[in-house]
Every structure is written in structure tokens, then in C-alpha cells.
């Protein structure tokens, strides 16, 4: 493992390289990352949709969800939340603000494309029919709950989430082999999922999957039977996905990763050394 100060130096170079990727590659790698995170989210839902205890479900889901980030780190992809760490390259004046914002925007759109694509494919696959449509109902319920969060709650949970996600990515920079990267990423992601924090890219899958599932009346009926209200289902839409959830969660994710990890370590190991 690299030392923390060595990780800071490496992060600066990594951020510079990310900013200098072509727009096409940024988008394509972002699309892959969105799909990888969605795979982790989908498998987590599959494993937990029949567990009645919310605490146990989050605990089990947290064991599975990290696979998405591990695929991003090992296979190579661009994840918006992890790229909040590029702020350290900006602070070091290795990249411009324009390059940073352009990279964030393109990767974010790629993440959205990959997440929504996988949500559509999962719905078309018939997988949500499992257990007589209980997975479909669970998918709707998960999405509806996310778009019903208050702005402040979604924002703060976004901060807490990406503080942990960026710690996972930061620690993975210090490892030279797959086992080191995977284990570095696993535990912080487990903590964020088990805690129920909000991840903008994962939510792109969860909410879009719920919107697609909402088109199936049998899933809707089972969701209502499980305790979800009709007004909550009616509130689940593309507009509520972006306005009620992705907007506050994305802002929180940026603040959590850029300030509490990227800038914090830049101040410690570069500015104040």
C-alpha cells in the first residue's frame, strides 16, 4: 500500500488524466460505470426483496452492492461520484475549472445512460416477475421512497454517502493489485449501503427501474398490498426522479467527496506540508 501522502500525489495525476480523456471516451466509460453500479444495485434488490427487517436487508444488500464499484475500479470506467476527487487536481492547478466541470457533466450523463439502460433491460427480461412479482413491487416501493425524501434529508445523506464512496476510491489508489483494490473499496461501500445513505448514480437505476416497473399493474397492486400508498406511486415519475432526488443527492455527493476527502487530503498533504 502507498502511504497517505503518496496516495495524494497519485490522485492528482489520476485526476489530470481523467480530465484529459476525450469527450467520447468519458461518455462511454461513464456509461459502463453506470451499468456496473446498476448491476450491483439490481443484485442487491434481488437478494433483499423478501427480507422483512429493513436493518437486515440493508446489511445483506451492503455485502453485494460493492461489486459495482469493484468492477468500476478493476475493469476501468468513469464514475461521477468517485470523480469528485478530481477537485484535488484543480486545487493543484493541474486542470482548469472548465475541464473539471466538463468531465463531471459528460461522465454524469454517461452514468445516467448506463443506469437507465440496465433498468430497462431488467424490466424487459422479466426478472421482476420473480416471487409472483414481489421483486417488481419492491422495486416500485424503493423508487417511491427515494423520490419522497425531503430536499434537506436527501442532500445530507448524499454528503455522507459520497464521503464514504470517495474514501473507498481514495484507498483503492494506494493498492497495486486486485485484492488490495477490492478490499479497500468493499468496506466503506458496505457501510454506506448498510446506513441507507443516498448515491446519485445508484439512484439513477433504482428510480428508473421503479418507473418502468410502475407500468405493470400487477407490480403496482402488490406494492399497494405491501403498504405503499397510491399517492406515493403517483408521485413516482421522471420529473420527481430528477427534482426530488437526483438534484439534492448529486449536490450532496459533490460536497461529500470533494470537500471531505479530496480537498481535506490536499490541504493536509499538499497545501500544509
Description:
The radius of gyration is 18 Å and the shape is elongated. 54% of the residues are buried. The chain has one domain: Glycerol uptake facilitator protein (Up-down Bundle), CATH 1.20.1080. With 273 residues, the protein is an all-alpha fold. The protein is built from 13 helices and no strands. α7 packs across α11. The model has no long low-confidence stretch (mean pLDDT 97). The longest helix has 34 residues.
Strand and helix order? HHHHHHHHHHHHH
Q: What is the class in the CATH system?
A: Mainly Alpha
Low-confidence segments, given as residue ranges, are: none
- Inertia-based shape: elongated
The total count of strands amounts to 0
The biggest sheet amounts to: none
Category from helices, strands and their pairing: mainly alpha
Rounded mean pLDDT score: 97
What is the third-level CATH name, the topology?
Answer: Glycerol uptake facilitator protein
In short:
The protein is an all-alpha fold. The chain has one domain (4-271): Glycerol uptake facilitator protein, CATH 1.20.1080. The protein has 13 helices and no strands.
